[in-house]
Amino acid sequence: MTTFQPEPVAGEAPPPDSVRPKDSTPQAPTSVSRLNETIRGFIQTWGSVWVEGEITSWNVRGGNVFGRLKDNAADATISFRIWSSTRERLPDDLKVGDHVVTCVKADFFAKSGDFSFGVSAMRHVGLGDQLERLERLRAQLRAEGLFDPSRRKPLPFLPQTIGLITGENSDAEKDVHRNAELRWPQVRFRTKYAASQGERCVPETIAALKALDAAPDVDVIIIARGGGDPQTLLGFSDERLVRAVAAASTPVVSAIGHENDHPLLDDVADLRASTPTDAAKRVVPDVAEQRALVAQLRSRLTSRLTQRVSHDIAQLEQLRSRPALRSPESMIASRAQEVELLTARGRDRVDRALESHARRTAELRATLRALSPASTLARGYAIAHLADGVIVRDASQAPASTPVVVTVGRGSFAARSDGEVAESAGAPSDPTAAGDAPAPN
């Protein structure tokens, strides 16, 4: 509450018969009436004061108004009264929740000891001043990143339960329920009521928001209020509420006022709806639209499948119409002669290769037979062996009486050497004779 103190009245003396601290002692106390008169005289020296605050109580009795004015920032209040004669000069639309500037003068009733303020003037706070304060707060919150689009949470396609914060029996509640149920008849709501204006608006809305945010089955929360003048919508620009919405883990939809209303709640909410009706339409899908979409998708799927099957059938018929597939036996018959020719050619090549290798084998066998010691022995030659198996190649190896084994073409026999003899003139000189004969196999 902002106060404007008047200049003190110079040279004004205290009322007569006033009580000073030194004038009262335990032995000589003052009276209650004299004390009250002293207080009343002191208070009357204050004069009038202009104060700013919110009307939290407005009771009309006999044409007079008795109410209270609150400073929301400091949570301080004062009582005021408006006489019927003064009320006639005030605006007719003053009510609880209005933010006003009031000219008050303190008054103390000496008889009852009651303290109050008499109102001589009262008017709404200028909208320009309020908007200026809101813009400063908006800039501060934007600088903190609370309005950043990247922090906005997506809304579920089909919420299990919708949390609704609104005034009890309000048009906003009826609009949200009616439009949501028309779009999706099985939709469920969990509603928390809160004052939509006045001093209870912000704390009750925050309490409802925390309760719904903690509920595990609530998938989205709508804060809805019908239209109103900027004064009545001030609660939805309160910094405490804005920060509570920013801290919520459940997506929050702001549906405050009409299209041209723009409280700070719209900037921090995950989705801003222009009206409560718009909120219902944007949170709940239309069952008729979804059925039409499903039917459209089913039709498109059937069409695509039909086209694909028809295309594949045409492709298969095209393949079957090709000569190779129309009469596959002709392809086999045309290849049979080629296979027979290749088979005969392969058989001929194999036969020639076998004959060539057979001749080569016979030649090698004949050569081997000619080089074999058995052939030499068959021609009448012999091989002499000593007892230890050594072949006698020199006559000196077998002196007289040396036992030897003589191998001939067919078998072997034992013999004894008569010693070395002189070579006769007619003796054969074949190097294969005696000791020079080739070794047997």
Please, could you describe this protein's structure?
The protein is of the alpha/beta class and 441 residues long. It has 3 domains: 3-125, OB fold (Dihydrolipoamide Acetyltransferase, E2P) (Beta Barrel), CATH 2.40.50; 155-288, 3-Layer(aba) Sandwich (Rossmann fold), CATH 3.40.50; 374-421 and 428-436, no CATH class. The protein is 39% helix and 21% strand. The protein contains 12 helices and 14 strands. The protein has a 5-stranded mixed barrel. A hairpin with a 4-residue loop joins strand 3 (64-71) and strand 4 (76-82). Helix 4 runs parallel beside helix 8 (276-283). The longest helix has 44 residues, at 328-371. It starts with a strand and ends in a 25-residue tail after the last strand.
Features:
Exonuc_VII_L, 3 domains, EC 3.1.11.6, nuclease, OB-fold_nuc-bd_dom, disordered C terminus, cytoplasm, five-stranded parallel β-sheet, five-stranded mixed beta barrel, elongated, 14 strands, about 450 residues, OB fold (Dihydrolipoamide Acetyltransferase, E2P)
CATH topology of the largest domain: Rossmann fold
The helix tally amounts to 12
* The CATH architecture of the largest domain: 3-Layer(aba) Sandwich
> How far is it from the N-terminal to the C-terminal residue, by CA?
138 Å
SS content category: alpha/beta
How many β-strand stretches?
14
Helix proportion: 25-40%
Order of helices and strands: EHEEEHEEHEHEHEHEHEHHHHHEEE
Mean pLDDT: 83
Most strands sheet: 5 strands, mixed, barrel
**Strand-residue proportion:** 15-25%
Rg from Cα: 63 Å
CATH class of the largest domain: Alpha Beta
Low-confidence stretches: 1-13, 431-441
Q: What is the 3D form?
A: elongated
